[in-house]
Each structure stands twice: as C-alpha cells, then as structure tokens.
C-alpha cells in the first residue's frame, strides 16, 4: 500500500477516525454492502466524495453486521441530513447466489472474498433497520439493487412478483441510475433550506405518495400511469405490458413521469436526467480518491473486485446495445457519457505512479469497450427516439460509430513512459467492427481499430459475446445474426496470421434464454464444433429485475408484442439444454443421440457424434486434432472454451 497517505485521506468509518478529524457531528452516513474501497469504480466512494465536495461531514459504514445487536447502525450516531443506503456494486441476490440458486463460495467485494458479510436484499434490510432505529431521519436508497427494483418486478430468488423497493424498505427517497446528478441537486436544495419531505421534483428519483394526496404538478413533465402492482399480481400479461412503458421512458431524452398505484400509495418515478456531459463525468472521476481499500482491511486479505480493476481505467458509461438479458442500459442509461482525453490520461498517470504498478494496464474500457464518444449525428433525431437499442435489429443510420477517438486514446495511453502495455479487458462489440453489419461506418477505420486491438491490446485471448447461434433467439436478445461472428472471426484469423500472432478468440454463449428450444441448443453445439470450438464454460440465463428477458421468463409474454414466448424454466429443461454444450463428454452422447433422433435431426447427430477413428489426413473426428501428429501448425485459435486444434489450412480453403 502507498505510504504517503494518512488515515484521514479516506472517509471515516469509525468514531476514532471521526475524532481524528475533530468533528462533533455528521451530515450524512453511508451504509454500504461492499467493503470500502476509495475508488471511482465503487459507488459508495463516489457518493461520499461528491457529498464531501459540498463541504459536508460524511462517514461510511461498510458491510454492517445484521446478526448482532445492530450496533454498526447506531455507532456513529444520527446524521444531520440523511442516511444513504446501497447494497453495493451488485444486486445482493446476484452477489450471493448462482443461476441455480446455490450460495456462492465467494463475495468479490469483501476482503479475502469471504462470504456472509452482505445480507440478502441488503438495501431493504439496511433501510428497515435504520427506519426502526432513527424513524425521524430520512433514508435515501440507491445503487443497482435499488435502481433495478424501483417498480413492480419479478424476483427470481423468491420466485415472486415484488412491489417497488420503497414499499418493502420504508425508505424515503430512491435515486435510480448513476446517481451523481440527482445527488448534487438533492444536496443543493437541502443547503438552501428546503425540507426533505418537499424534495419531490428532482429528476431520476422516486418516492411514495399517499393516494389521497395530489401528485406534485410540474409543467415541464408529462405523466404516464401504468397498471397497479395489484393488477400485475392478478395478470402476468398486465405486468409484461407495464415493462414496455418503463423501458421506453427510461431510454428517452425527455421521459415522462411514471405513476403506479401500490396498496394505499402511489409510486412516483420522476424522469431521467439528461446524459452526463463531459464536464460532469470528469468531475466525478477527478475527485480526490486514494484509489485504495481502507487501511482497516490490510490484515483481512485482498478484495477480489478491487484487484481486478486496480490497474484499469473506465473511460465511459452507458450502453446502447439494449440486450434483452442485460441491466446496463436500465441502470447506466442507453446514451454514452464519455470522459475527456485529459481526464483519462490524468488517471493513467496516477495509476502509473502507484507503488506496485508494473507497467501493465489491465483494461481501458467501459460497459462495452468500444462505444467511447459514440452518439447521434443529429441530436434532434435522438431526442424523439424510443428504441431500446441503437444497434438492433440494425445499426441506426444516425449513430456515429467512429472508432477513431478510441484508437487515439489507446495510442495516447501507450505513450506514457511508465506504461509497457495496455489491455482491453472489457467486452468488445464485435458486430460493430463488421462492415457488412456496420454499413454506414468507414470500413478502413474499423479494420484499423480491430488491428490495433488485436496487435497491441490483447493478452493472449480476445473475448466477444455472440451469445447464441439461432437467429430467432438472437433477435429476441437484440443481438445480430451469428453470421457476423463468422465474418469477424475470419478477420481475426487474417490479422493473427498477418502479424504472426497466436491469439485466442473466446466466444461467450448463454443457455436457457427465452425463445431457446432444445433444437436451438443442438444447432449451437454443432455450429460451434464445426468452427473448432469445444465449449467448457457456459453462462446460464439468470433472470434479474428490469430486463425484457426476465419479464418473459416470469410472465410468458414478450412485453413489446404481448405474444406468448417459450422459456425453459424447469430444472430438467435447463439441464437438457446445457448438456448440448458438452457433446464431447461420453456420459452425454447417448442422450444427445436419442434426443436428436426424436427431433428427426440425424444431420446434427452426424455433426456432433460422428464415428470415432482417424480420417485419412490424421484428423481425429472425436476431438478435431490428432495429438500424435507433432509439428502440425494450428491457427484455429485455442482458448478455455476452445481446445480443438484442427487443420486451419483445410478449414480456410473450404
């Protein structure tokens, strides 16, 4: 750890640290489900630094115990303004459980990865305790757990439809999405003397109102009322229909205020803020973070999530992909907020001068690595748009997908004298690099970016996410046809040969996604096998609040068409779909053969389970490679997901 920092360089976490600062009272106390890392990638740290910038006295209670006398919630006393509550950087249920609802072995946001320090439904648990202990102190909840549960939502882990989190938590105000803008307005209004209970016109906030009270009038906003929580409980199609309104309003530049009745209250969700300007997002990243975990954790072990991003740089927020299974746009927004080049290079310099920096940046990226500075060419067109994705089913003609600013950033970073190499660890949208899909882009520029990444920024393996091979499933996912992955791979192989590299291409896939039938999984297995991939790790679909796929999973209806849509839900259905990924395992082969025979797909049997034995050219039909033929060169790039070392030249000439 750096030695030039004092304990007072972190937000205080104990009474001793408060006394060292000479404070007699606190203005805001933050309660967090994560260990305290003073870094811009950790929401509680950003929250604390922003509050501090207003001259407020702020403290943080990280991972308070909920299993004792609850002294962690009272030890710092009562704040003058409010408690700020977050479950942490992840929804606590995603953090605590796998897609199979099994308890995870590790918690990445806890020292040593220890589990058990974050309760289930953490934001709700923390808030209810605070309201019991300090009923007269306002509680503001935020973070991804609160954000994605801001309205009636399906909770996979309890298999129940739950009301908005304000109803369950008793919190007074909810800030959804990236919270800097509403938080700043909240503090400014409080400092002007406006009572907390009158703060009902702040954008990107939600609150509950007694039904007999009039919704505050705002002449600049239009209202839209969605079906009540009780109506959603009675009819799944009604719940599905609600989601279309919620998603569209969340993705608008000028969204409407959403109203929903729940019990004897009305939920009021104010419209979103405009996308953060370059100045605003720079202001968040330029705050005086130590970029280090609090010294209190030195003896407990490293924090895995911090170790992962310790030498990385986040250059933008938001994602216009709008994937049906992903929560990024629901929380960070559809429009991209990009940092300035100056702010990015300033952080690079700070990282490069850390005591244990060895010259390697682990990532220069964001939610999607290659969306930096991308936006509409004509803003007025974007102002009227309600589409959930800018690149599905096709790339919008108004979207500027120039990769030149990103290429320039990479090159500027690599010019730093202490940076030996910078990697791109974030997921790259490979489809935007395929000219046949990204038709309005400069093909030469796309090729230059692709070559720059493959040549200078890949640490052995390039990860991309085609997710599936079925066009029907991909359409529902809001992902492009798998044919574009073939085209990207062809270009990847070409550059690999041209530069005499031995890089690996790692494709990620999802099983058990809505609209996916058993036959689709068989086709996926056959097509990926034919490309030389032998899959070993596959992500099972996990229903999380605020996604199209989750709405379909629970209701059985697509929220945009209200047509019935199949989803594999039973344990048996999920396991059967999953087995196709592992066609090469002997214990699966008899079952696969019988299943495909019942589907009259003997063609797939021949592809997945050909007769064993060596062919004339030495190709082992079982594994795609004859290990006895030493010296054979393979450019069919192998990865954790790809062990087949088939004859590249033969495939290339097919």
Keywords:
13% strand; 24 helices; nine-stranded mixed β-sheet; 24 strands; three-stranded parallel β-sheet; 654 residues; Rossmann fold; alpha/beta; single chain
Task: Explain what the structure shows.
There is one protein chain. The protein is α/β, with parallel strands linked by helices and 654 residues long. Among the domains are: 7-210, 3-Layer(aba) Sandwich (Rossmann fold), CATH 3.40.50.2300; 462-469 and 501-654, no CATH class. It contains 24 helices and 24 strands. It has a 9-stranded mixed beta sheet, sandwiched between helices. β11 (257-262) and β12 form a beta hairpin. α2 (43-53) packs parallel to α7 and α9 (236-250) runs antiparallel to α20.
Please give a quick description of this structure.
The protein has 654 residues and is of the alpha/beta class. Helices cover 33% and strands 13% of the residues.
Topology readout:
Blueprint: H1 15-20, E1 28-32, E2 37-38, H2 43-53, E3 58-62, E4 82-86, H3 92-96, H4 122-133, E5 139-142, H5 143-148, E6 153-155, E7 160-162, H6 165-169, E8 173-175, H7 180-191, E9 205-210, E10 223-225, H8 229-234, H9 236-250, E11 257-262, E12 265-269, H10 278-285, E13 292-293, H11 304-309, E14 312-314, E15 316-317, H12 328-332, E16 337-338, H13 341-352, E17 360-361, E18 363-365, E19 375-376, H14 379-384, E20 399-400, H15 404-414, E21 421-422, H16 443-456, E22 461-467, H17 471-477, H18 483-498, E23 504-511, H19 518-530, E24 539-540, H20 548-555, H21 571-579, H22 586-598, H23 602-608, H24 648-652
Parallel strand pairs: 1-3, 1-4, 4-5, 5-8, 10-11, 14-18, 17-21, 22-23, 23-24
Antiparallel strand pairs: 2-13, 6-7, 8-9, 9-12, 11-12, 15-16, 19-20
Helix pairs in contact: 2-7, 9-20
């Amino acid at each position: 750890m750096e030695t030039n920092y004092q304990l007072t360089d972190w937000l205080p976490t104990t009474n001793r640290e408060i006394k060292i600062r000479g404070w007699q009272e606190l203005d805001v106390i933050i309660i967090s489900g994560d260990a305290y890392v003073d870094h811009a990638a950790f929401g509680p740290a950003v929250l604390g630094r922003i509050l501090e910038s207003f001259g407020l006295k702020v403290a943080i209670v990280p991972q308070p115990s909920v299993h004792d006398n609850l002294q962690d919630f009272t030890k710092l006393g009562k704040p003058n303004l409010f408690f700020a509550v977050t479950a942490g950087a992840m929804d606590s249920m995603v953090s605590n459980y796998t897609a199979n609802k099994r308890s995870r072995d590790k918690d990445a946001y806890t020292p040593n990865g220890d589990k058990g320090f974050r309760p289930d439904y953490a934001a709700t648990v923390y808030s209810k305790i605070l309201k019991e202990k300090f009923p007269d102190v306002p509680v503001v909840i935020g973070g991804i757990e609160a954000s994605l549960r801001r309205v009636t939502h399906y909770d996979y882990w309890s298999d129940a439809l739950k009301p908005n989190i304000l109803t369950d938590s008793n919190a007074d105000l909810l800030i959804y999405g990236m919270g800097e803008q509403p938080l700043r307005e909240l503090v400014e209004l409080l400092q002007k003397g406006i009572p907390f209970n009158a703060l009902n016109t702040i954008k990107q906030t939600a609150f509950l109102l007694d039904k007999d009270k009039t919704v505050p009038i705002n002449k600049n906003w239009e209202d839209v009322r969605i079906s009540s929580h009780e109506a959603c409980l009675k009819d799944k199609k009604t719940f599905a229909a609600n989601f279309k309104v919620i998603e569209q309003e969340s993705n608008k530049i000028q969204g409407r205020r959403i109203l929903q009745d729940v019990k004897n209250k009305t939920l009021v969700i104010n419209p979103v803020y405009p996308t953060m300007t370059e100045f605003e997002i720079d202001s968040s990243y330029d705050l005086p973070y130590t970029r280090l975990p609090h010294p209190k954790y030195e003896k407990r072990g490293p924090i895995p999530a911090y170790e992962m991003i310790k030498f990385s740089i986040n250059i933008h927020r938001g994602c216009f992909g709008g994937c049906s299974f992903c929560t990024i746009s629901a929380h960070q927004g559809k429009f991209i907020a990009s940092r300035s080049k100056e702010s990015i290079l300033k952080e690079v310099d700070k990282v490069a001068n850390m005591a244990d920096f060895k010259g390697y940046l682990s990532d220069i990226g964001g939610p999607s690595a290659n969306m930096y500075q991308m936006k509409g060419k004509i803003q007025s067109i974007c102002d009227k748009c309600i589409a959930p994705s800018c690149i599905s089913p096709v790339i919008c003609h108004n979207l500027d997908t120039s990769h030149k600013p990103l290429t320039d950033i990479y090159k500027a970073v690599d010019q730093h004298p202490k940076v030996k190499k910078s990697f791109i660890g974030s997921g790259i949208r490979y489809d935007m690099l395929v000219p046949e899909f990204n038709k309005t882009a400069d093909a030469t520029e796309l090729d230059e970016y692709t070559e720059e990444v493959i040549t200078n920024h890949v640490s052995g393996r390039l990860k991309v996410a085609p997710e599936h091979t079925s066009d029907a499933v991909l359409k529902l996912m809001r992902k492009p046809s798998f044919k574009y992955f073939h085209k990207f791979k062809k270009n990847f192989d070409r550059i690999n040969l041209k530069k005499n590299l031995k890089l690996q291409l790692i494709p990620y896939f999802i099983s058990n996604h809505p609209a996916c039938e058993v036959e689709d999984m068989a086709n996926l297995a056959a097509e990926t096998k034919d490309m030389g991939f032998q899959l070993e790790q596959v992500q099972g679909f996990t229903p999380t609040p605020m996604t199209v796929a989750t709405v379909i999973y629970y209701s059985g209806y697509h929220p945009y068409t209200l047509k019935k849509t199949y989803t594999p839900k039973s344990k048996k259905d999920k396991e059967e779909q999953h087995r196709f990924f592992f066609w090469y395992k002997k214990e699966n082969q008899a079952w696969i053969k019988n299943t495909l025979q019942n589907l009259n797909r003997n063609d797939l049997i021949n592809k997945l389970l050909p007769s064993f034995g060596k062919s004339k050219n030495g190709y082992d039909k079982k594994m795609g490679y004859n290990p006895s033929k030493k010296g054979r060169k393979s450019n069919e790039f192998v990865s954790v997901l790809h062990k087949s070392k088939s004859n590249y030249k033969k495939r290339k000439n097919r």
